[in-house]
Amino acid sequence: MQAAVIHRYGQTSPVLETVPRPALRPTDVLVKIKAASINPVDLKIMAGELKLLLSYRMPLIVGSDFAGEIVAVGAQVTQFQVGDAVYGRPRKNRIGTFAEYIAIDPDDIALKPQNLTFAEAAAIPLVGLTSYQALHDLLNVQPGQRILIQAGAGGIGTIAIQLAKHLGAQVATTTIPRNFELVRALGADRIIDYHQEDFAAVLTDYDAVFDTLGGQSLESAFSVVKPGGQIISISGRPNARFAKAYGLPRWKQVLFHLATHRLSRLEKQRGVHYQFLFMSPSGQELAQLTRLIEAGQLHPVLDRTFPLQELDQALTYSRNGHAQGKIIIQIA
Ligand SMILES: NC(=O)c1ccc[n+]([C@@H]2O[C@H](COP(=O)([O-])OP(=O)(O)OC[C@H]3O[C@@H](n4cnc5c(N)ncnc54)[C@H](OP(=O)(O)O)[C@@H]3O)[C@@H](O)[C@H]2O)c1
To answer: Where in the chain is the domain with CATH 3.90.180.10?
Structure first.
């Protein structure tokens, strides 16, 4: 099969190679991938930026989510059958969706929403699960709560705004004027042009911030949230609490503790709870998203679609950092 492969960290242009089709374990399904999506984590993995959290053997097929059709099921699989249209986010040591086939644990997939094409469905798994885990599982967003979602026009932002509205929240978001119409249509109540306005100066007493930017934006988020409120970051630094819960060795916990002392100080000063989220694959939660999508509560926002042969251009486009929603790779 054709697959996009890197042979070492730092190789930021994967090469399309012919590799063997993945072997099917008795507990796996084999999926013929129709479409995949680009996620910034793909760029970070290739650059070797996540080595403290995820380390991979080389050569590595890249790509973190997909939609496709099951073409074989392992002897022990009961919940799916050949011909099922599915989508999913493989677990961390089994990525590789920029390829014609993937063997995957059925716990990591769900039936594709019937009202979406494969390309549309491929836009959902990683950003949908991340947003669901942040807003539903961790923040437990309640009707009437006020939340700031950073980067509303991005892959995460376009889904997170819709989910937060579905949960009944009042949503503020940051973006550039070109995207105002888009984020308004998704449900944003307060839109901040981050080149013109400092969100930390105009938003106060929020219940929560969903931070997708990290760095100074994350630190500034502490002045937006009221005491007792919460900040979830998916781009900031993992703290020691996260490192412990994630099962990292003691020396990494210490490293993360030292790297986040400013955030710990802000937590204490402001009486705000900070958590780093590293999303996890979950077919069960993806099935919840399927229900929301089929009920018309949630829809993917697609920017551009590239064929697998133009993966490099798609990655460059993603690296530029101004996509409106998701960038899709059409594979079959
Ligand atoms: N920890 C996890 O489990 C996890 C999971 C998923 C994603 N992430 C991380 O979350 C981040 C966002 O992911 P994504 O998929 O949404 O990325 P993305 O689709 O590439 O986000 C691009 C968007 O960011 C916006 N943007 C850039 N700079 C901005 C700023 N200063 N203020 C507001 N908006 C800004 C751009 O909008 P404009 O054109 O308006 O600038 C663009 O729409 C990435 O760093 C990714 O690695 C982490």
So the answer is: 2-123+300-330
Q: What proportion of the chain, given as a percentage, has pLDDT over 90?
A: 96
Task: Give, for ligand 1, the residue of 49, 92, 175, 317 to mutate: max count of ligand atoms closer than 8 Å to Cβ.
Answer: 175
Distance CA(212)–CA(199), nearest Å, equals 14
3-state secondary structure of 147: strand
Mutate to test the pocket of ligand 1, among 210, 322, 326, 327 (most ligand atoms within 8 A of CB): 322
| 213: nearest Cα among 174, 159, 178 | 174
The answer, yes or no, to whether residue 95 has pLDDT greater than 90, is yes
CA of 186 to the centre of ligand 1 (A): 16
Ranges 119-123, 157-161, 254-258, 269-273: which has the least confidence: 254-258
Query: What are the tokens at 56?
Result: 């991979």
Question: pLDDT tens digits for 181-239?
Answer: 999 999 999 999 999 999 999 999 999 999 999 999 999 999 999 999 999 999 988 99
Peptide bond before residue 113 is cis, with ω within 30 degrees of 0? no
Secondary structure of residue 32 in the 3-state scheme: strand
Amino acid at 1: M
CATH of 127-276, one of 3.40.50.720, 3.40.50.300, 3.40.630.30, 2.60.40.10: 3.40.50.720
Q: Which residues pair with 148 in a beta bridge?
A: 172, 209
Distance of CA 158 to the CA centre of its chain: 11
Q: Residue 54 has what pLDDT? A: 87
Angle at 304 between CA 302 and CA 5, to 5 degrees: 110
CATH of domain 2-123+300-330: 3.90.180.10
Distance CA 223, CA 227 (A): 10
Mean pLDDT, the chain, integer: 97
CATH 3.40.50.720 positions along the chain are 127-276
CB of 260 within 8 A of CB of 239?
yes
13 pLDDT higher than 90? yes
